[in-house]
Automatic annotation (TrEMBL), chain A:
Name this polypeptide is given: Glucose-6-phosphate 1-dehydrogenase
Enzyme class per UniProt: oxidoreductase
Catalytic activity field: D-glucose 6-phosphate + NADP(+) = 6-phospho-D-glucono-1,5-lactone + NADPH + H(+)
Xref: Pfam families: G6PD_C, G6PD_N
EC number: 1.1.1.49
Keywords carried by this UniProt record: Carbohydrate metabolism, Glucose metabolism, NADP, Oxidoreductase
Gene Ontology biological process: glucose metabolic process; pentose-phosphate shunt, oxidative branch
Purpose: Catalyzes the rate-limiting step of the oxidative pentose-phosphate pathway, which represents a route for the dissimilation of carbohydrates besides glycolysis.
Native organism taxonomy: Eukaryota, Viridiplantae, Streptophyta, Embryophyta, Tracheophyta
Domain Glucose-6-phosphate dehydrogenase NAD-binding: 89-267
Glucose-6-phosphate dehydrogenase C-terminal domain span: 270-564
GO CC terms in record: chloroplast stroma
NCBIfam families linked to this entry: zwf
TrEMBL record, chain B:
Domain of life: Eukaryota
Catalytic activity: D-glucose 6-phosphate + NADP(+) = 6-phospho-D-glucono-1,5-lactone + NADPH + H(+)
Pfam families for this protein: G6PD_C, G6PD_N
Protein name per Swiss-Prot or TrEMBL: Glucose-6-phosphate 1-dehydrogenase
Class of this enzyme: oxidoreductase
Domain Glucose-6-phosphate dehydrogenase C-terminal positions: 289-582
Residues of the Glucose-6-phosphate dehydrogenase NAD-binding domain: 108-286
Similarity section: Belongs to the glucose-6-phosphate dehydrogenase family.
PANTHER family membership: GLUCOSE-6-PHOSPHATE 1-DEHYDROGENASE 2, CHLOROPLASTIC, GLUCOSE-6-PHOSPHATE 1-DEHYDROGENASE G6PD
Biological processes, Gene Ontology terms: glucose metabolic process; pentose-phosphate shunt, oxidative branch
EC number in record: 1.1.1.49
Pathway: Carbohydrate degradation; pentose phosphate pathway; D-ribulose 5-phosphate from D-glucose 6-phosphate (oxidative stage): step 1/3
Gene Ontology MF: a single term: glucose-6-phosphate dehydrogenase activity
Length: 571, 591
């Protein structure tokens, strides 16, 4: 994380582990730094797809790694426009590309986070002209609320750098055509190429093969961002990884989990590791249970085709929630460098017990009428087979069998078509031993315990529930919330997760991307239970659309003496 | 604390706590609060206690009350006073109390004084308004000046106010309250005059069990006279008699001990209620709740995590022509030795066995006894000098006409204290108190250690101690608790920031009761938790007496600081000696 702090620091040569951040280690891509940033941002100073993150000096050890920072930029006297980056969005006409990727690229451009020379390419099968692509993109571009000035100018400039190439995903021709065009735009500069694969998983490998063979950069780096799903179980994921590695090295693969790009997930590590007050609390000695909760208040809404193949466990739990859990529970890493963090995450994942069927509850939403309106069942979705038993809700209890967390239940819950939309981590602490105020609390001492809540969405928040005296002559206790995050203080709009992740990928910062062994470990936890669910055709518990989910989740929690913090009578 | 928990909780039966073990909880809930009006007198603790005392023996009555109220084993023998009267059955008491057989008389000695007018009478009225006083009560003003009952009522009525949230019936209530106020004029050293008072009291008490509370709002030199006369001629015969005394309790170990001995000639320990109004403040009460009912603070509360603790008191005005009293005592005696030290003791004490008064006071005494007496080199004293700002000239302390021209009395002091026990060894407790400073407030600041091996150290710069966590408990002006936490500033970079925002208690619309209300009610109820026991007082004086003597003997000149400034810079050097930075005077603060 500190590594990101150094981005664009004028004259920084060393990436993450650099020694002395002398002046202003932080301002990031701010407009006033535009000048300084141009030509000497870390993009150029950084090692490419070589051994990541160690430092610029050691990067020369790796393959195909034309050390860009070996050039004049190294000594802090950068040559204007020495390198260029091309971002090719494969699957440019898709939804994600339109809604997230292009807008994120524009936002980065707006904030001067892109290098001076960059090109954006859309690649897809449909025929389209550059102009048409630009038209399509411009519809979704917005300017940040706090930076409206020059917005149209900026948009104009950005769109001028956007181009389109049509071609098949599995044929090399299209990509060699793309390569030609890219070379034109790169105009002799040191070319770095980033491919964003916004395409269905069944053509991942085809595209990677074709693109890597024909459109790799000859002298700069070539990186591929891939989106979930990364297989559907250990084997298929292992298979996918093997195939990708036929054409790419580990360092070229950027598996994106956009949840990791969220501000609050970033803040989780800051909270844990830069505040002494949490240090003694973060273990089985003080924490009674941890809850990871994700809910959406809408169903598949006619787009269940993809979802039905995967189900909520694969779609949310095995990746987003598990990733957050790993960050939450990992030991302190040696440093903030990507490999150090990912090493710790892998350790947590490998310490986790494989999930058993007994520890999982699955549910599926059914139709529900409320206030004259009726909401469809999951199986009413025309894109979903009518006999589908794919879970749209799941709750699970997982355990980490290491010294820190032995015996602490980590409860996960994820569901669609629930009564609310949210994602949060709840940490329930143990009760006060020998509580002097026990008579003020009542018989259930576990009710009045402290609770730390980290809400990722909709409104980011961090608060600690503490017991307080109600002002007055009596002695009544009440729990109040000690707010630990003051978003009001920061008027700045929070950048979208995709912005952060795209920038990281361009900079070769791998901290927030999932390494192959991480992915393997994550699948190893879930694969047996997924298989069992499917083999036994375990029927999901039905719950009404818009409800709080199946009651089975409560019984699962009760097994481990836990109460869901999000569904208590006081909320 | 548990005892007071059902006070004023207006009919709340919902787990707000109950009277000790198995005691009749239900009636207690309704004691104060409008809804409980009808039943208030019945079953309230005051009445019950009084009735218990009725069975007791004079002189030991207070201990008897204590036991009755607790209805537990007589393990709490206080300071050797005979407390063997055990009331066997609570039900008994209730039935007795239901007959309205007891009454409380509160006599404010020094009724024409400032404190009486500004604090005591209004607090009594507030208690009355909230139905916290027993059904039968009488208030007497006692002073030397001649005054009629009507004149007293006039005087009192001018300072009475109704709480913002309860304006209804205010005038009626005031009327009713004033009807119960009377005046008796007499000399402070005349037994005869107190006998007259006794006669009047008896008239009002009728045949009820009479409990009497004397509030001594008078200069310390006449404490003993009044106690002597009042206890001899106007003690209650069949109820309890208690005396509330205000600081100063002497000016050093010897004089304080002499005062205690004098008081004990006429009173037993349990009759003496030494008030420290700081202990009645809401947040000081909350401090224990915070510490002992939140697991998250438990592991933090020791030398392992806490780097230093700061207790800060400041006033933004000087003596303003009223320095006569102050000049004889100085800021150390006036603020530090009592208010700040008391808060420190509550902050630092070990977990008491229970919330009962003796258990808490035992722990406080232990902390005070573990402390190292103050050394001269660990103290900085100051005195304000005049200062002109924006055309206004503020006077120096010695410009005050009531202060001798060459006075060396400190109006500011900073001190570093240490508690030599397992929990706090090596942790500096810094105190600072001053008049005529730039701001007004009282707060506790707890600075935590820096994160060992901080991963984010490069985001912090070289001084890791500047970005540590800090817990701030502000007692006044706006009560608040907040925790400074490092967070990431939203955005693509990695900038950290320390939050300083404030958690107040805006959720509670109820007005916070004045410290005097709580303390008066406690005294009426015999709850001693917030009053200072004799051995506590001794221990407190022992810490400060050698230093005070040395300051006076060596005639150490205070460092002068301008009126309205941040105090003498010497305080910074004192802090620096122990590697501390004052949390209230950092550059990030506005002013």
């Amino acid at each position: 994380m500190a590594a990101t702090g150094l981005r664009f620091r004028p004259g920084t040569v060393f990436p993450s582990r650099a020694t002395s951040p002398s002046t202003q280690p932080y301002h990031h891509c701010s407009p006033q730094r535009m000048h300084a940033a141009k030509g000497r941002c870390r993009l150029k100073a950084k090692s490419s797809n070589g051994r990541p993150q160690i430092s610029a000096s050691s990067s020369s050890s790796s393959f195909r790694d034309v050390v860009i920072d070996g050039g004049p930029s190294e000594d802090g006297a950068p040559e204007q426009g020495g390198a260029t980056v091309s971002i090719t969005v494969v699957g440019a006409s898709g939804d994600l590309a339109k809604k997230k990727i292009f807008p994120a690229l524009f936002a980065l451009f707006y904030e001067d986070c892109l290098p001076e020379h960059f090109t954006v390419f859309g690649y897809a099968r449909s025929k389209m002209s550059d102009e048409e692509l630009r038209n399509m993109i411009s519809l979704t571009l917005t300017c940040r609320i706090d930076q409206r000035e020059n917005c149209s100018d900026k948009m104009e400039q950005f769109l001028k750098r956007c181009f389109y190439q049509s071609g098949q995903y599995n044929l090399e021709e299209g990509f060699s055509e793309l390569d030609r065009k890219l070379k034109e735009k790169e105009a002799g500069k040191l070319p770095n190429r980033l491919f964003y694969l916004s395409i269905p998983p069944n053509i991942f490998v085809d595209v990677v093969r074709s693109a890597s063979r024909t459109a790799s950069s000859s002298s700069g780096w070539t990186r591929f961002i891939v989106e979930k799903p990364f297989g559907r179980d250990s084997e298929s994921s292992g298979e996918l990884t093997r195939s990708l590695k036929q054409y790419l090295d580990e360092e070229q693969i950027f598996r994106i989990d956009h949840y990791l790009g969220k501000e609050l997930v970033e803040n989780l590590s800051v909270l844990r590791f830069s505040n002494l007050v949490f240090e003694p609390l973060w273990s089985r000695n003080y924490i009674r249970n941890v809850q990871l909760i994700f809910s959406e208040d809408f169903g598949t809404e006619g787009r269940g085709g993809y979802f039905d193949n995967y189900g909520i466990i694969r779609d949310i739990m095995q990746n987003h929630l598990l990733q957050i859990l790993a960050l939450f529970a990992m030991e302190t890493p040696v440093s903030l460098a990507a490999e150090d963090i990912r090493n710790e995450k892998v350790k947590v994942l490998r310490s986790m017990r494989k999930l058993r069927l007994d520890d999982v509850v699955v549910g599926q939403y059914k139709g529900h009428s409320k206030g004259g309106k009726s909401y469809p069942a999951y199986v009413d979705d025309p894109t979903v087979p009518s006999g589908s038993i794919t879970p749209t809700f799941a709750a699970a209890a997982v355990f980490i069998d290491n010294a820190r967390w032995d015996g602490v239940p980590f409860l996960m819950k994820a569901g669609k078509a629930l009564h609310t939309r949210r994602a949060e981590i709840r940490v329930q602490f143990r009760r006060v031993p020998g509580n002097l105020y026990r008579r003020n609390i009542g018989t259930d001492l576990d009710k009045a315990t402290n609770e730390l809540v980290l809400r990722v969405q909709p409104d980011e928040a961090i608060y600690l529930k503490i017991n307080n005296k109600v002002p007055g002559l009596g002695m009544r206790l009440d729990s109040s919330e000690l707010n630990l995050l003051y978003s009001e203080r920061y008027r700045r709009e929070i950048p979208d997760a995709y912005e952060r992740l795209l920038l990281d990928a361009m900079e070769g910062e791998r901290r927030l991307f999932i390494r192959s062994d991480e992915l393997d470990a994550a699948w190893a936890i879930f694969t047996p239970v997924l298989r069992e669910l499917e083999e036994r055709r375990v029927a999901p518990e039905l719950y009404p659309y818009g409800s709080r989910g199946p009651v089975g989740a409560h019984y699962l929690a009760a097994n481990y003496n836990v109460r869901w913090g999000d569904i208590s009578s006081d909320t | 604390m548990a005892l007071s928990c059902m006070r004023c909780s207006a009919g709340a039966g919902n787990g707000a706590g109950s009277v000790r073990r198995g005691a009749p909880a239900a009636p207690s809930f309704v004691r104060c609060g409008l809804r409980g009006l009808a039943t208030a007198a019945a079953g309230c603790r005051v009445a019950a206690a009084a009735a218990a005392a009725a069975k007791g023996v004079k002189g030991a009555m207070d201990a008897g009350v204590e036991n009755a109220v607790r209805s537990v084993a007589p393990s709490k023998v206080e300071n050797g006073s005979p407390s063997e009267i055990i009331v066997d059955d609570f039900q008994d008491l209730i039935s007795l109390s239901e007959n309205d057989e007891s009454t409380v008389t509160i006599t404010v000695v020094g009724a024409s004084g400032d404190l009486a007018k500004k604090k005591i009478f209004p607090a009594l009225f507030a208690l009355y308004y909230e139905d916290c006083l027993p059904k039968h009560f009488t208030i007497f003003g006692y002073a030397r000046s001649n005054m009629t009952d009507a004149e007293l009522r006039n005087m009192v009525s001018r300072t009475l106010t109704c709480r913002i949230d309860k304006r209804e019936n205010c005038n009626e209530k005031m009327e009713e309250f004033l009807k119960r106020c009377f005046y008796h004029s007499g000399q402070y050293d005349s037994e005869e005059h107190f006998r007259d008072l006794d006669k009047k009291l008896k008239q009002h008490e009728g045949s009820r069990v009479s409990n009497r509370l004397f509030y001594l709002s008078i200069p310390p030199n006449i404490f003993l006279d009044v106690v002597k006369c009042a206890s001899i001629s106007s003690s209650s015969v069949n109820g309890w008699t208690r005396v509330i005394v205000e600081k100063p309790f002497g000016r050093d170990s010897d004089s304080s001990a002499a005062l205690t001995r004098g008081l004990k000639q006429y009173l037993v320990e349990d009759q003496i209620f030494r008030i420290d109004h700081y202990l009645g403040k809401e947040l000081v009460e909350n401090l224990s709740v915070l510490r002992f009912s939140n697991l998250v603070f438990e592991p933090l509360w020791s030398r392992q995590y806490i780097r230093n603790v700061q207790l800060i008191f400041s006033e933004d005005f000087g003596t303003e022509g009223r320095g006569g009293y102050f000049d004889r005592y100085g800021i150390i005696r006036d603020i530090m030795q009592n208010h700040l030290l008391q808060i420190l003791a509550i902050f630092a004490m070990e977990t008491p066995i229970s919330l009962e008064a003796e258990d808490i006071r035992n722990e406080k005494v232990k902390v005070l006894c573990s402390m190292k007496p103050l050394q001269l080199e660990d103290v900085v004293i100051g005195q304000y000098k005049s200062h002109t700002k924006g055309g206004t000239t503020y006077p120096a302390y010695t410009d005050d006409k009531t202060v001798p021209k060459d006075s060396l009395t400190p109006t500011f002091a900073a001190a570093a204290l240490f508690i030599n026990n397992a929990r706090w060894d090596g942790v500096p407790f810094l105190m600072k108190a001053g008049k005529a400073l730039h701001t007004k407030g009282a707060e506790i600041r707890v600075q935590f250690r820096h994160v060992p091996g901080n991963l984010y150290k490069r985001s912090f710069g070289t001084d890791l101690d500047t970005s540590t966590n800090e817990l701030v408990i502000r007692v006044q002006p706006d009560e608040a608790i907040y925790l400074k936490i490092n967070n990431k500033i939203p955005g693509l970079g990695m900038r950290l920031d320390r939050k300083t925002d404030v958690e107040t208690c805006p959720r509670y619309s109820k007005e916070i009761p004045d410290a005097y209300e709580r303390l008066l009610l406690d005294a009426i109820e015999g709850e001693r938790r917030l009053f200072i026991r004799s051995d506590e007082l001794d221990a407190a004086w022992e810490l400060f007496t050698p230093l005070l003597k040395e300051l006076e003997e060596k005639r150490i000149a205070p460092e002068l600081y301008p009126y309205g400034s941040r105090g003498p810079v010497g305080a910074h050097y004192l802090a620096a000696k122990y590697n501390v930075r004052w949390g209230d005077l950092t550059t990030e603060h506005k002013a």
